[in-house]
């Protein structure tokens, strides 16, 4: 099994998890405890939004069967990323090896779809029996002329975040820097770790256009293969989801000298801050002026409705359970709405994320490590919260507990980024907290006693 | 400034705005894609017979499969037992996927854990994970039993569940007498149905193997199988049996676990088949399997050889299906079918006649799990509809051949092609070759239905994109009316959507 630089990834220098005390890097899961997604899931979901490429899962039916189209990462054009390609590994393949089957499968994809590139994902079984994706990809590339990118992130390697990083490694090694844009432009940026969940990036893209900033690539929401290949031409990288793909920003700084900063599009203040950071970076007075005017307009457009909703949400408290950048950036957004955040998830957050949370929420901030339904419900009641914001696996638990719930992870239908997204976030919270269903829950009659 | 709410455009309209059109033009430079004409040309080609030939010549590649993996079935079977925590020995990601799958289909919490094997476990085996995992799961979630299945990873290493569980007991990680039924469920063999079969047998073995039968309990055992409608179906089965005065045991009754009321608290365990009921099951009259594909191999062996009962496959779906079920129960128990059920039958028949005009002669394609698909095909043929394409990614060869033979002798099924082992991309080519009037299947069929502009009757697993369908029974005469209602109204909606002003009628 050849896992590229696994040890190094565990020691990702920009990741504060790797501070002296936590040598193990990304935390290992506890056996027998409710756990989250795997490395494969992290890698697959990081790269699948590259919409014009074909993505094939080399493994048994389960890995793809469960992952197929399971995130709302939207594309404005090609839809090939939604086709579920797999080698559907069977018993015989385990015994005799699956390289030949994979080779043929990729050839079949290229013959039928002529994609700009094929991403091929390793899974537990195929890694364990030693199928060599590296050599196979090279051979295929030579034979067909189509880039074949091996993503070596089998599930057992660890958690989802490690998968994000291994996906980052794959594009760093084989994709970024392989193509030049046709035209020059003075203000170029990339976004890294923005996945266009529910199409939320489309609340931000027009803003960049209005500013006059050219987006070379968003890795990977609504991305195209060739955009990823040209990423090295950016002047600035913005890291949007902190821990995922951190290695991409850092390596691009080392390799191409592209500086990066960490920001968020959740909340009007965060969005303003991010856009201003971009505008100021280019040291162009007109660009800055355009940006400031635009921000003022955007703020004014959401203000009337926002202030009405704020009135209804004032003083309400939210229990936030999510990971990574969302843990601190959403805290900011919720506070901007005048809401309190009583606790936030920190399982996937870096030390730096945690520090930011403490800055925002105070030193007594409750950082949730045990995300089991029981613990979340207990915390909710202890802290007097009015809403749970978490991922889909907690939605139905919350409803049983008569707890208003707002989706925060990949399954959601609502887009939260940018100014309009912020308004949508406020609307979602308002609808959830004031759902009439909860008001009806008290029994209006007395039960017949058991005879 | 106006106080009107700001319109935040949804995806259907957002791209019409000028700013997006401009943005897309800018993006073109980076896309290096083909021209719209070239794309269109290829798209047209993909609808042709020549492409179909290419498509069917695929040997190594599967595109858009309509099946899931073994442990998914295993944990659904396990979830039907009282106080049982499904536990998967292997890597953690699989379980996170399964939980999402059931959350999204049943709109309910779903509890399951794994022992999170990682790289070192791949080298040294997973016994240590199992020890810790069982100990932690018991301490944290306090289940009455833990049902262990496996992922591919543990199977490739060759971990021995029996030995590991016994060692865990010997070394004191869990009490000696604590029940831990188990099943080996590698994803690279079979499908979720195989997993259901394995775990059901695991349960039966654990609680009944080697035990002498005591006195006959006069009950019928019922195995629901991998059924996305169990929440509606199991109560319907119970109701019919109670009307007949028949005593029964449902083996793997997940209908309360996957349909709990909003009470203000979260209960991890809620009902299900008790250990006493399983232990007593060998004393029953016979065992009925409602979806025979879920009990095809090892469960069958266990019922027939260990329990010395017959395992009878009958799916109570459609008119003849429900008739057969009731008659079989009557034959086995000696209880008559009451008039109340005959009246229900008459009402179902009445509904069928009412809707006949809209279904008779309609052509349909269908995909899903073999037993459910076969029962649905039978029902639609009772309505005079004609199956064109029947696609099962996970049927056995024997089943496929049997169905083909059966259909050849029917009035409405002569044209049907059975494609066993095919995927949904094959189905696309088939539907372009001969376009059906409607498609029956899970949410995975929605892209196909949209592309071909035909209605999708959502019956199957998983249904992620519609709410509450799974709460309805599709079994029994009442379930028949549910399926009929969904189908005929979808066709009528389609008719209304496509009608012009002059024929947009009030009465249908």
Automatic annotation (TrEMBL), chain A:
GO molecular function annotations of the record: nitrogenase activity
InterPro entries listed in its UniProt record: Nase/OxRdtase_comp1, Nase_comp1_CS, NifE, NifE-like
Protein's pathway: Cofactor biosynthesis; Fe-Mo cofactor biosynthesis
Alphabetized PROSITE patterns for the sequence: NITROGENASE_1_1, NITROGENASE_1_2
Superkingdom: Bacteria
Biological processes per GO annotation: protein-containing complex assembly
This protein's record includes keyword Metal-binding: no
Alphabetically ordered keywords of this record: Nitrogen fixation
Residues of the Nitrogenase/oxidoreductase component domain: 38-433
Function comment: This protein may play a role in the biosynthesis of the prosthetic group of nitrogenase (FeMo cofactor).
Family, similarity comment: Belongs to the NifD/NifK/NifE/NifN family.
Protein name as annotated: Nitrogenase iron-molybdenum cofactor biosynthesis protein NifE
TrEMBL record, chain B:
Annotated GO MF terms: ATP binding; iron-sulfur cluster binding; metal ion binding; nitrogenase activity
UniProt EC number: 1.18.6.1
Cofactor annotation comment: Binds 1 [8Fe-7S] cluster per heterodimer.
Gene3D superfamilies: Nitrogenase molybdenum iron protein domain, Nitrogenase Molybdenum-iron Protein, subunit B, domain 4
Domain Nitrogenase molybdenum-iron protein beta chain N-terminal: 1-55
GO CC, alphabetical: molybdenum-iron nitrogenase complex
Cofactor(s) essential for the protein: [8Fe-7S] cluster
Record's function text: This molybdenum-iron protein is part of the nitrogenase complex that catalyzes the key enzymatic reactions in nitrogen fixation.
Record protein name field: Nitrogenase molybdenum-iron protein beta chain
Lineage: Bacteria, Pseudomonadati, Pseudomonadota, Candidatus Lambdaproteobacteria
């Amino acid at each position: 099994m050849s896992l590229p630089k696994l040890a190094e990834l565990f020691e990702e220098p920009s990741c504060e998890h790797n501070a002296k005390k936590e040598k193990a890097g990304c935390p290992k899961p506890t056996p027998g405890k409710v756990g989250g997604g795997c490395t494969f899931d992290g890698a697959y979901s990081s790269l699948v939004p590259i919409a014009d490429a074909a993505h094939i899962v080399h493994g048994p039916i389960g890995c793809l069967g469960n992952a197929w189209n399971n995130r709302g990462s939207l594309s404005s054009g090609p839809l090939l990323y939604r086709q579920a390609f797999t080698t559907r590994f069977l018993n015989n393949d385990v015994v005799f090896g699956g390289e030949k089957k994979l080779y043929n499968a990729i050839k079949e994809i290229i013959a039928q779809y002529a994609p700009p590139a094929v991403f091929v994902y390793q899974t537990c079984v195929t890694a364990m029996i030693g199928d060599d994706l590296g050599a196979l990809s090279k051979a295929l590339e030579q034979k067909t002329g189509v880039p074949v990118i091996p993503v070596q992130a089998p599930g057992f390697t660890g958690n989802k975040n490690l998968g994000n990083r291994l996906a980052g490694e794959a594009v760093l090694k084989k994709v970024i820097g392989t193509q030049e844009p046709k035209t020059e432009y003075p203000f170029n940026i990339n976004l890294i770790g923005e996945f266009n969940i529910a199409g939320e990036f489309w609340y931000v893209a027009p803003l960049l256009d209005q500013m006059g900033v050219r987006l070379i690539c968003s890795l990977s929401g609504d991305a195209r293969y060739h955009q990823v290949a040209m990423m090295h031409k950016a002047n600035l990288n913005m890291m949007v989801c902190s821990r995922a793909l951190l290695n991409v920003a850092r390596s691009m700084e080392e390799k191409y000298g592209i500086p990066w900063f960490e920001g968020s599009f959740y909340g009007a203040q965060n969005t303003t801050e991010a856009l201003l950071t971009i505008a100021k970076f280019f040291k162009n007075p007109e660009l800055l002026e355009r940006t400031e005017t635009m921000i003022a307009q955007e703020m004014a457009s959401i203000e009337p409705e926002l202030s009405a909703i704020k009135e209804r949400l004032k003083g309400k408290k939210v229990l936030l359970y999510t990971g990574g950048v969302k843990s601190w950036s959403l805290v900011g957004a919720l506070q901007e709405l005048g809401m309190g955040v009583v606790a936030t998830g920190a399982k996937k957050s870096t030390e730096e994320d945690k520090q930011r949370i403490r800055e925002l929420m105070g030193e007594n901030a409750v950082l949730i490590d045990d995300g089991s339904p029981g613990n979340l419900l207990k915390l909710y009641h202890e802290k007097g919260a009015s809403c749970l914001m978490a991922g889909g696996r907690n939605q139905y638990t919350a409803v049983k507990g008569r707890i208003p719930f707002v989706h925060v992870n990949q399954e959601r239908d609502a887009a939260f980024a940018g100014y309009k997204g912020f308004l949508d976030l406020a609307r979602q919270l308002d609808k959830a907290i004031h759902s009439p269903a909860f008001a009806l829950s008290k029994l209006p009659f007395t039960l017949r006693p058991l005879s | 400034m106006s106080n009107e709410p700001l319109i935040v455009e949804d995806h259907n309209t957002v791209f019409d705005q000028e700013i997006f059109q401009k943005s897309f033009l800018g993006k073109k430079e980076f896309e290096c894609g083909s021209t719209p004409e070239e794309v269109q040309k290829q798209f047209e080609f993909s609808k042709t017979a020549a492409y179909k030939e290419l498509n069917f010549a695929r040997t190594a590649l599967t595109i858009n499969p309509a099946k899931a993996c073994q442990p998914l079935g295993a944990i659904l079977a396990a979830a039907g037992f009282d106080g049982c925590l499904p536990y998967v020995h292997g890597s953690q990601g699989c379980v996170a996927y399964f939980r999402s799958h059931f959350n999204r289909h049943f709109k309910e919490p779903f509890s399951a854990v794994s022992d999170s094997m990682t790289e070192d476990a791949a080298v040294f085996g997973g016994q240590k994970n199992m020890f810790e995992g069982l100990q932690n799961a018991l301490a944290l979630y306090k289940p009455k039993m833990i049902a262990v299945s496996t992922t591919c990873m543990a199977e490739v290493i060759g971990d021995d569940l029996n030995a590991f569980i016994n060692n865990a007991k010997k070394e004191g990680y869990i009490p000696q007498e604590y029940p831990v039924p188990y099943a080996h469920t590698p994803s690279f063999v079979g499908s979720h149905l195989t997993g259901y079969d394995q775990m059901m047998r695991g349960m039966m073995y654990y609680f009944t193997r080697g035990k002498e039968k005591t006195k006959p309990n006069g009950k019928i055992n019922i195995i629901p199988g991998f059924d996305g409608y169990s929440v509606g179906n199991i109560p319907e089965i119970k109701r019919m049996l109670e009307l007949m005065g028949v005593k029964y045991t449902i083996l793997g009754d997940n209908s309360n676990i996957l349909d709990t009321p909003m009470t203000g608290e979260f209960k991890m365990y809620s009902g299900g088949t008790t250990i006493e009921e399983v232990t007593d099951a060998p004393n029953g009259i016979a065992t009925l399997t409602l979806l025979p594909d879920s009990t095809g191999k090892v469960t069958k062996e266990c019922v027939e050889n260990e329990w010395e009962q017959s395992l009878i496959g009958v799916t109570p779906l459609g008119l003849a299906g429900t008739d057969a079920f009731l008659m079989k129960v009557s034959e086995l128990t000696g209880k008559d079918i009451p008039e109340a059920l005959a009246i229900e039958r008459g009402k179902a028949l009445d509904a069928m006649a009412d809707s006949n005009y809209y279904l008779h002669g309609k052509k349909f394609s269908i995909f899903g799990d073999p037993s459910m698909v076969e029962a649905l095909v039978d029902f639609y043929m009772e309505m005079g509809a004609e199956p064109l394409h029947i696609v099962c990614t996970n049927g056995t060869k024997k089943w496929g051949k049997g169905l083909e033979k059966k259909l050849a002798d029917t009035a409405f099924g002569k044209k049907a092609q059975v494609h066993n082992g095919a995927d949904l991309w094959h189905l696309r080519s088939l539907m372009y070759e001969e376009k059906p009037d409607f498609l029956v299947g899970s949410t995975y069929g929605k892209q196909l239905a949209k592309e071909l502009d035909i209605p999708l009757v959502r019956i199957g697993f998983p249904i992620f994109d519609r709410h509450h369908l799974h709460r309805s029974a599709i079994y029994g005469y009442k379930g028949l009316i549910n399926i009929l209602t969904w189908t005929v109204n979808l066709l009528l909606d389609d008719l209304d959507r496509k009608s012009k002003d002059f024929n947009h009628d009030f009465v249908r």
